[in-house]
Specification:
Layout lengths: L5 E5 L3 H14 L4 E5 L2 H10 L5 E4 L10 H9 L5 E5 L4 H9 L4 E4 L4 H12 L18 H10 L4 H11 L4 H8 L3 H15 L4 H9 L12
Parallel strand pairs: 1-2, 1-3, 3-4, 4-5
Helix pairs in contact: 1-5, 7-9, 7-10, 8-9
């Protein structure tokens, strides 16, 4: 008997998660849906469900810094396709999502029928983008590509520490949030700097911000 397909929906807006669930159920009858509202929750969901068939990922959610979450998920879990679902619908944002490993990009403004069509296409092994932007791509900056590749070398905990660094948190604040010692955080920061090829926390934050995406005005919090 064929097992039901499993899809992780990652978005911090409950109403949009509900809309995505409707589209997913329309595209994949009998699907098992796992929900996540932060990037850390997405990572936990992927760890608990390594057999997931697809992740639908909003790049503007707590813990995510633009494409860094996408890059990290793809690097740590190459067998699970990721489709970006975002209100940032500029051509260059869609292009970068594909360049950084997404199997598709679904605008949040798309009708449910189109979202269902996109999900079906990706589950069948295809890449999906809005039809009108396919010929508009330029090349991603080499430095962005290099940093994206370096992100993959981070452990999940190191990635969470880097994300908190970009939020301006101090070592003791990060230690409190992660329930570990400050010495552990210092060791993580040292490893992060080495892996990213930078010399300071500030340089690491600046590098991480290269993968950032300006959130659409409707999603500003």
């Amino acid at each position: 008997m064929q097992l039901a397909q499993k899809i992780i929906i990652a978005d911090d807006h409950p109403l949009f998660r509900a809309a995505l669930k409707q589209a997913v159920s329309q595209a994949v009858p009998g699907v098992e849906i796992v929900e996540a509202d932060t990037l850390a929750a997405v990572q936990d969901a992927v760890d608990k469900h390594p057999d997931a068939d697809l992740v639908l990922l909003d790049i503007h959610m707590p813990g995510a810094n633009g494409f860094s979450g996408l890059v990290f998920l793809r690097g740590q879990n190459p067998g699970i396709p990721v489709v970006v679902v975002s209100g940032s619908e500029q051509v260059h944002v869609m292009q970068r999502a594909i360049e950084y490993g997404a199997s598709g990009f679904i605008p949040k403004s798309a009708p449910l029928e189109v979202i269902a069509e996109a999900i079906t296409a990706v589950l069948q092994g295809e890449e999906w983008l809005p039809q009108e932007i396919a010929d508009s791509f330029d090349q991603v900056e080499p430095e962005d590509q290099r940093f994206a590749q370096a992100l993959v070398s981070l452990t999940p905990q190191q990635f969470r520490v880097l994300t908190m660094l970009t939020e301006g948190l101090l070592n003791k604040q990060i230690a409190y949030e992660l329930s570990v010692s400050e010495a552990t955080i210092k060791a993580h920061v040292t490893a992060i700097l080495r892996k990213l090829g930078v010399n300071s926390r500030t340089q690491a934050v600046i590098a991480a911000q290269r993968l950032g995406v300006e959130p659409p005005k409707t999603e500003l919090k």
